[in-house]
Design brief:
Its cofactor is Zn(2+). The chain is an alpha/beta fold. It has two domains: 176 residues, Zn peptidases (Aminopeptidase), CATH 3.40.630.10; 56 residues. Helices cover 23% and strands 29% of the residues. The chain contains six helices and 13 strands. A ten-stranded mixed β-sheet has the order 1-3-2-4-7-5-6-8-13-12. Helix 4 links the parallel strand 5 and strand 6. Helix 1 packs across helix 6 and helix 4 crosses helix 6. The structure holds zinc ion (ZN).
Length: 266
């Protein structure tokens, strides 16, 4: 794990890239931020590259998925189990945390959080996203489910230059929103929150996904199918998130419902 510090002060924010070794955008964004941010920033800014061995190999992880390994264990048996515990400890006490990701699922960029604090509201409404996924009911082994005030930011398609640009600009918006970078005023927009309902399993055979992220799913339509499953939509208020044919070994994505609109901080 590499940690670059900028700025000063007891208040602290962090940006984490390279949680997944097959998502090089995060590391590039963190390095660009390190070049861009002056050392006289108003708060302590920690710029973190998490899983260096996995990035070096260009693989998602070395032994287990880091973002399924939280809270981790300092005495754990695998590299990522120990790394999760080290990263969680490093981020303790941060006022705001942004974790950078890219995915094989379709655009647009979106945010993910598990617990809505005022810091999380500030982050989500500052990011260049129309949608946020409240994944509080889905998993408890991700970074944003164990680190207070953490938001994951899916910046775009894995390997694309656009994902680097969106992630870099979004990271600057995050830093401005929390007063860590003051080159210009922060700006906020309202954001639609969808709540994760359940994961949609993938089986054997050629996978097909027929809808994009956040596209309303008509009741009765087939969302995705393969030789094992035909997922016909049973309710008319569902939207897919993380929808992809090849992004995950055994998931087509997640069904979500529109939950609320997040207003900018007052
Ligand atoms: Zn990722």
């Amino acid at each position: 794990m590499k940690v670059i510090e900028r700025g000063h002060g007891t208040e602290r924010v962090a940006i984490v890239g390279g949680i997944h070794g097959d998502e090089p955008a995060g590391e590039r964004i963190v390095n660009r931020l390190a070049d861009r941010i002056d050392d006289d920033a108003e708060k302590t800014i920690q710029l973190i590259i998490a899983n260096e061995p996995a990035l070096k190999r260009g693989e998602r992880y070395t032994s287990v998925d880091l973002n399924r390994s939280f809270p981790g264990d300092l005495e754990g048996e695998t590299y990522e189990t120990v790394l999760a515990a080290r990263l969680k400890r490093l981020l303790e006490g941060c006022d705001a945390v942004l974790a950078l990701h890219t995915s094989r699922s379709a655009p647009p960029p979106f945010a993910v959080y598990s617990s809505l604090t005022e810091s999380v509201r500030r982050t989500v409404t500052a990011l260049p996203v129309e949608y946020a996924l409240d994944s509080g009911t889905l998993r408890d082994t991700t970074l944003d489910s164990v680190v207070p005030h953490a938001v994951s930011f899916e910046t775009g398609r894995q390997g694309s230059e656009e994902a680097v640009e969106v992630g870099f600009e979004g990271a600057l918006s995050f830093l401005r929103a929390h007063g860590a970078v003051t080159d210009m005023d922060p700006s906020f927009t309202e954001t639609t929150v969808v709540e994760g309902q359940r994961e949609v399993p993938k089986g054997d055979g050629t996978p097909h996904v027929y809808y994009n992220n956040f596209e309303p799913l008509p009741k009765g339509a087939i969302f995705a199918e393969d030789d094992t499953y035909t997922h016909r939509v049973e309710h008319d208020d569902l939207v897919p998130v993380l929808a992809s044919e090849h992004g995950y070994e055994n998931l087509f994505g997640v069904y979500a419902t529109v939950k609320q609109t997040l207003d900018p901080p007052s």
